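One-letter codes give the sequence; the fold follows as tokens. An example follows:
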Amino acid sequence: MSLKNLRLSLLVLVLFILLPGCSQNSSPTASEGEAKKPVAVQVSKVEKRTVESIAALNGKVKPVEEVNITPKTPGKVQSIYFDVGHQVKKGSILFTLEDRDARLQVSQAQASLTAAKASLSKSKGGLMEQQLAQLKNALVSAKINYDNAKLDFKRTKQLHAAGGVSKQALEAAESKYTLSEEQYSLAKTNYELTESRINPESIAAAEAQVQQAQAAYDIARSQLDNTVIRSPINGTVASKSIKVGELVSSSMPAMSVVNLDSVVVELGVTEEIINKIKVSEKVKVDVKSASDKTLAGEINNIAPSADPKTQSYLVKVKVPNSEHLLKGGMFAEIRLPVDKAENVLAIPLNSIIDDAGKKVVYVVEGEKAKRKEVVLGFISEQYAEVKEGLAENDVLVIKGQNFLQDGSGIIISDK
């Protein structure tokens, strides 16, 4: 083949390769055609509203009430009535200890108390007091008879001296006087002897013995009662470390009972936030391990001083827990409203695009989307305050903005 023919063949080959490419570039591709189609979007007007700034903090769930059950006296476990997870009422018997020795001590104390009461009754002299009253009446009667006999003897003696009565009458009056004097003296002696037996000192001693015996009985009774261990609260048995027949001490918990009807979440709050919250304020609580729903809580307690180790303030949030889904030890997120801006322009968070650190939104201008940078202020869970970049009643793209560019055609849709 000649050099001329070779060059001609190469030229034909190059043209064959290039011509299809030129033909392809001369008409728009399908993707370019689609890019020019309007984008369906949803919109909303920019309005003024109140925007709360939220601080999300983590804390740990604890029961409102948690009681370690420890016997007041050591002993051997006789019976156990509840296990871990069982519901108990306040006053329910959790377990009992062997009580034979305690019952014997009660019987002995009861006998001592009965004897002391009998001694007191004897000292006070129930029958003796009645006898003393009778003797007093007899003494009074004897005194009256004595006084009358003495006066009668004196008169009779005067009459006899004047010759008014016989010697026999005088002797009879004297005899009556002497007899009444002896009777009065005897009545007085009997009364005084009986009265001396009933004295305040002996009664006080007997009363002291009764009080001592009563105290000993109460102690013995208390020791017997201590062999029956009851729940001090309504709740659930959280732990049990005893078995029937084992010895338990008064220094180690045998069971624990927790009340899960409501729980508290404890969290540490910094000094920048602590004065922006208050007791009884409503907050939102998320415990992902227990529920997908956001729960309602209430600030129950705010520590007046910071923990010296963490330099944070302990805050307790109370959360209702009627279904007992929340358990002690679970982690919770608390969203605290720490500040707010009232009557400010605000837009939904889902309308904002983060573009290389810039906050960007799209607004509707005619049938096109206009890209705008915005400066944000307070940010809540759903809205963000707009300080610059938008005006009230601007029509904002809230759905579909991720498919837009500045100047993109749009179709407003309700769906």
